Each structure stands twice: as structure tokens, then as C-alpha cells.
Amino acid sequence: MVQQQPKQERAVQTRDSILRAAAEVFDEAGFAGASINRILKRAGLTAGALYFHFASKEDLARAVMNAQSDSIIPWLKSEGLQRLVDITMVWAYQLQVDPLLRAGVRLTGEQEAFGVKDATPYQEWSQIMTECLEVAAAKGELQAGVEPAELAEFVVEACTGMQMYSAVASEARADLADRAVRMWRLLLPGIAVPAVIARTQVDPARVQAVIQDAGASRATAARAAEDDRRTTEAAG
User: Fold this and answer.
1) CATH number of the structural domain 1-65
2) Which of 14, 112, 144, 157 is the most buried (most CB within 10 A)?
3) Architecture of domain 68-235
4) Residue 229, Cα to own-chain centre: how many angstroms?
5) In this predicted model, what pLDDT tens digit does every residue of 33-79 receive, in sequence order?
6) Which Gene3D superfamilies does the entry mention (predicted)?
7) Where in the chain is the domain with CATH 1.10.357.10?
8) What is the signed CA dihedral for 37, 38, 39, 41, rounded to 10 degrees?
9) What is the spatial distance between Cα 39 and Cα 35, in angstroms, rounded to a whole number?
């Protein structure tokens, strides 16, 4: 059992390395331009390692498409309506800096070109947002008549169109956060009670600071863990 854990950890790390490398290549070249050899070269791994985790390039593309929430959910600390707003603020920021999220969004949009028709990414976001809004409703944050699932699906639809518009209208979606702020400025008066509108923070700088600070802390922890591992190996 003691020996099994490092193998499992290595398998998880290998899968993550493949997924990240594939995301970078898909982000740069799309599905058609992303060859398995190019992905393997980027990951620094063998074909055997890739096919142990993914059956095909299509399977790998699906995994990237369906990993979008991994770029956003870990950064969230709020709940209710604020959590929903924060999802969109983190999403707007991460689309500029995280290839995994960008590739997932790109592949979701062009999936029919490689023979896939999978609504899972949209449905997953709708479910995540519905849960936020159900909490908001239970806390009395929403106006009467606001149906969580309906509103959640609308926000997913709005964000989908918004990022497509931003990708064309600005360099590297630089204006996406401003568009998200405008969306909430227009939406909040129609869905939230006045007291909640007053305390809901729609601030891109707030979530950017949280992500950057947390990223620095994780990098420090990772370096410390690596130093401990090397010390342990040297002592052994």
C-alpha cells in the first residue's frame, strides 16, 4: 500500500501534464492543427503514456472541454449570488491567462468540426450556477419569481456570446471583464433585492488579486514540497 500511493500520484501528474500540454496546443492550433506528436513533444512524454490515459485525440479534446471548471471553482470562496458573480469575474480573468480554459472554450465552440456534439460543458456550468442561485434564493437574495435554473442557463448563454464577441472585438479578450461588469449592472436590478445589490461586489480587480496571491502561495508551497522531497531522497 505504501508503494502504491507514489504510483497513483505519478499517474495523476502524468495525466495532468498531458491535459495541460494538449490544452496549450489546442489553444494555439485548434483541434485540426493539434497533432498527437506535437502534444507529446510539448508534454515530454511517450505515446504509451498518452494512450494509457486517453483513447484518442477526440477523447483528449473532450477531457479538455470538460475541464473548464477546474480553472475557476478552486478560486471561489463566496456563496450565493456573490459566488455566481465571482464565477464570471474569475472566468473573464482566467480566459486571458489559462490555456486550459481557453482551449476548453475553443474546442466547445468548434466541436462539430471534429465530429462531436457534446453539450456537457454548458450543462455543467448551468448546474454549477443553478446551485449558486438556489443558495441565493434560500438566503432571500433573489426577487420573487426568479427561477434559479432558468437564470443560470441565461447567464451561461450570455457569457458564451460575450466571450465570442470579446475575442473578435479586443486583443486576447482584454475587454471581457468590462463586459461581464456591464452584464451584472444590467441584470442585478431585475433579479436581486436592493440590499443585496448594494453589497454585491462586481470588481475584476478583487478576483485578480485573490488569484494572484493564491498562485504565489501555491508556488511557494510547491517549491517547499520539492525541497523536502529532494532532502528525503538525499538522506535515503
Assistant:
1) 1.10.10.60
2) 14
3) Orthogonal Bundle (1.10)
4) 30
5) 999 999 999 999 999 999 999 999 999 999 999 999 999 999 999 99
6) Tetracycline Repressor, domain 2
7) 68-235
8) 80
9) 6
